[in-house]
Fold this protein.
Amino acid sequence: MKFEIEARVRRASGFTLVAAIDCEARSLGLVGPSGSGKSTLLDAIAGIEPGARVVLDGVDCSADPLEGRRVGYVTQDALLFPHLTVLQNLLYSPRAEDPGEVPAALGIPRLLDRMPRSLSAGERRRVALGRAILSRPRVLLLDEPFAGLDETRRREAMSWLHRIRARTDLPMVLVSHLGDEIVGLTDWTIRLEDGRVVDSGPSASVLRASETRIDNYLTGVVVGPGRVLVDGVDLAAVVPADASGGVRLACYAHDVLLAAEVPRGISARNVFPVRVSSVVRAGETFLVEVGKPALRALLTAEAVERLGLREGSEAVAVVKATSLVYLGPD
Amino acid sequence: MEAVRISLGVGLVATLLSLPVALALAWFLERTRSRARDLVHTLVLMPLVLPPVVVGYLLLRLFSPRGWLGRALEGIGLPVAFHWLGAVVAAAVVGLPLFVMMISLAMKGVDPRLEIVSRSLGRSRWETFRRVTLPLAWPGILSGAAIAFARGLGEFGATVVLAGRIPGETETIPLAIYAELDSPGGETRIFSLVLASIALCLLCVLASRRLDRRHRMRLELER
């Protein structure tokens, strides 16, 4: 989607946002410290904050009111309608006719008759996401959709969003301060500070040293006790004894090691050859993407240089079984 | 006990009539950024602070057969001044400020971001009001209605000026008590009217408290 946005917002508190954005991205990330104007910019795109020029894929929707703009707006408070059931929330939009595959894709098919108050924080976010997707928006606007969840729940919710991303081609704008959300879900990122754009580029390149906690999300099939087949590679992972069929796993990029040749006499149980598909600077470190299975490894500049890693080069990936965390059934 | 029946009828009809007006005013005060809000707020509060007799006099000027509204209403067979409807109008106008304040409070409790989400999902302002604001504020609105009803039961000053004291038609509980003060042996009747008045008001306040608790419980569920 081509994003052409000019926002000029003055708040009573004295804060002003002056941002002009012109970029083409499947998904756009907005990062920056709190109070930098990320949410204000998102509100301007949504039409909640009036007066911004917003052109999406050449269509000027600056004059469209909030209800006519067709944006799927999701915030960190799920903001479910407390007097409606999960199903009624999902079908709230006049454009939502049938929940279809969305509840299954978000792992909420058994919650449809429940009231929002009986849901966990993670479940509420997923319902809010489903509600936004079912309103058939042109673009999803996500304002820190996973903030406030504990780490396990956050990784789980992220992996659900990954699934949705894989199944639909919905463009999105994501506000976040977490590297794994930005790198995992967006391809172009804008950095804001004090209401001004200070950096803009491919997502990993915009990250700073403190933001490079990046997660990998994998799906595979259980083939034996503690063994999961992912993209044709048999991996040892920590999965519950009763897990079977499709499962979702996660693994931090800083837990993936790369070696020039097969190391000997180490405890790590997953050692497999990979091919490097990209090397991108991420803050003071480098993010190396390999396949298969598709994994991101976070390495220092020195390590990248020593191993001579570049697009197309061969390497050996090393992942401890305990670094591959089970998130739930697929 | 004729007076109790009249008071209940007047209070009920006055509350029902003023409900849509109070809803519209509260929505305007709570949910718009219009510059006229201050002026409207001031006007809404006036019947609360003005002497009821003054309110009654102004209403009489407006609704008497010589007033422009009174003439129009009489034309369609709805006389107000010195009729049952006059007592209703007086109770509605004097009860309105409290009603609007209570509904405003109920709407204040509804997270405006829920309304933003509703609109972003494609529902118009009116649909959002009907599907989100109104159902969530409803117990609070009913709680306000109970108070407005109780206020209407006890209306005296404006009623006596606009509707007069016509036994069996406009003589509500307070008017009847006032009349009995002068009549010999009226004390027992006064006593039963006072008792009825206290009982009704107590019931209204209890109902209002209960509804208010439900309202707050409902809103706490948002998070």
Observations:
- DSSP finds eight helices and 20 strands in chain A.
- The mean pLDDT of chain A is 88.
